[in-house]
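Our collaborator T.R. sent over the components below with a one-line note: 'Predict the complex.' Nothing else. No constraints on interfaces, no templates requested, no preferences about which chain binds where. So this is a plain run: every listed entity goes in together, and whatever single assembly comes back becomes the starting point for the next discussion.
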Amino acid sequence: MDKILLILKREYISRVKKKSFLLATFLMPILIGGMYALSIYLSVKDSDEEFLIKVIDESGYVGNKIEDKGVAKFEVITGQIDSVKTDVEQGEGFALLYIPELDLYKPKGIELYTMQTPGMELESDVDDAVENALEATKMDNLGLRQNTLDSIKTRISIKSKSLSGEASTAGSSTIAMAIGTISGLLIYMFIMIYGSQVMRAVMQEKTSKIVEILVSSVKPYQLMMGKILGVALVGLTQFALWMILTFAILSIGPMLLDVDPQVAADAASGVSVAGNSGGNAQALEAMDKLNDVLGEINIPLILGAFLYFFLTGYLFNAALFAMVGSAVDSEADTQQFMMPIMMPVIISMMMLGPVLKDPAGDLAFWLSMIPFSAPIIMMVRIPFDVPTWQLILSMLIMIGGFLGTTWMAGRVYRIGILMHGAKVNYKVIFKWMMSKD
Amino acid sequence: MNILTINNISKRYADHQALSDVSMAIPKQSIFGLLGPNGAGKTTLIRIINQIISSDAGTIEINGEPLNPGHVRVIGYLPEERGLYKKMKVGEHLLYFAQLKGLKKKESITKIKHWFKKLDIPDWLDKKVEDLSKGMQQKVQFIGTVLHDPELIILDEPFSGFDPINANIIKDEILELREKGSTIIFSTHRMESVEELCDHIALIDESHKILDGPKKDIKNSHRSQTYLVNHLGAMGALDSHYEILGTNKLEDEILETKVRITDDSDSNLLLKHLINQTKVVGFNELIPSINDIFIQAVKEANNG
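Returned assembly:
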């Protein structure tokens, strides 16, 4: 055990000190933070800018009801459309909004004249403002008041429960889907990136011929395990640093940009910052909905399961990668053996769609029981609530799975690392696996 | 007293027999030459002693105890195929080797510094392995092998790739280690270093041990009563006790003739007989070199 620790320590330190590791670890959060900062900056900047829009209302429905909305400020004027057009051309105001005489219930022919093409935000703000004005006119005609309308509005959130009562399906499957997909993807990336690092490390030890010196001091199995665990720890470190740094950047970033964090958060979640009362109500509604859904999703379970499948999925595959690394003499030889390892992982990624469609179906069930696909598929299913027995069974299968692959890999490894220049194919690998000590 | 006893070891790989019923004993504080052609089974035997692989049959004892994982600590092994981590610093690397053998950190550092001084290596603890010359890397590997003061040092082709100066330094270290009580098993093709260093040898060919014992005894048993005679003027026919194996011309009219005694006659009688035949200027027994013995033994084994 001491020796596994020594090997693990060397593997860990030599990797964590590498420039490529430091670069990837620190660049990623900065990249995410930078994109985030950019989006905040842009939304905050946009909201400062205002566009003056001259309104000529020939219908009589809009002029006295229109209110400033978002970046659009309105000025109702009377005058000839052509002379106002000229004024706008000369820089008096950004645009001319022309409302012709129209049928209140079939409004047509409204036009916006500008010198520069208006941004999407402005266009939608103008749209909203005119709609609000027309609606207000209709309400007046019907004798309705805004607060009457507000009091009619009802908001509910239905929680669907399965008949067994133990599991509830998340109210909004979109968020569950996002969480599932992201965790599945992360596990997939982790397995691929760090699995092939294990393979390369084993191969380098073999080709640099250091391995025979090492196995005269430690058992080949200890050497392999130390390496696999060392790389796992590197991966976890990187993941933890990404989390911490991203979080730090996201919370410190807005301060540096001199933006109210609440505003920044709103901006980032796509909620209009300078919205009017209607906008705020919508935003609040969206936030409530999000909170509801998040409340229904079991965050500790997801985090715990993520770590568990993250690790077991990696261990299961890393052993196979180590096996390939020990058998070959050069990177080029790895190709033929990589296929059978990569294929199941890639197939599980391709199965994400079908599984998301029916997270409790047969396909989803079986894929989450096969150790090759279980880490990815199970993580996709968990936000949709998986029966406890299935989760536990899948977890046990993963333990069995990686004990199995490690055993297999260990047997091939002990012979493979000492074989130079041997022509290796599946038959040879199988023979190594079966040969006695 | 034997440090290592090998009893009836056999090992079979899938497609060939690597060792067949090999037994030998390695005396304490000796330099033991393990010889044999390529593919004879030397490396397999060494790997079995190092517990890298296990034997199919037979037993091995170190200091009278059956081989067990604890023995890793008392063996230092320099394989023929050897390398270092290129990106690691020399000091860290040696420390890693020492710790894998079970040494404490502090102790290891003292020993590393001691060996650096001894082998005349500048303070390179912080230098990366890849920045060292090949010869220096080999010195580092040698230090890695002996750092934990192993009782039994196994060197597989230790001189391959060494320049003559460094080879000599290592040779001196090997002799000194023996003086201090270590036993060295030495596997090589370089017969001149066997001749020079080894006290005992064993010869393995095609998985069988075909010869072993103290070098002196082996050489004696391979003496063939043959003498090299340097003489001036032709040598006449000799009587029936002796046989002329051949004559070479040396410089200054001196001839060299190989003469073998065919019966129980001895060197004095031969010399007496020769004096009457020619003018003898030199007379030496032809003692077979290890190289000759090696080639002869392998030939005999293959024919028999």
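Summary for T.R.: The first strand of chain B starts at residue 2 and ends at 12.
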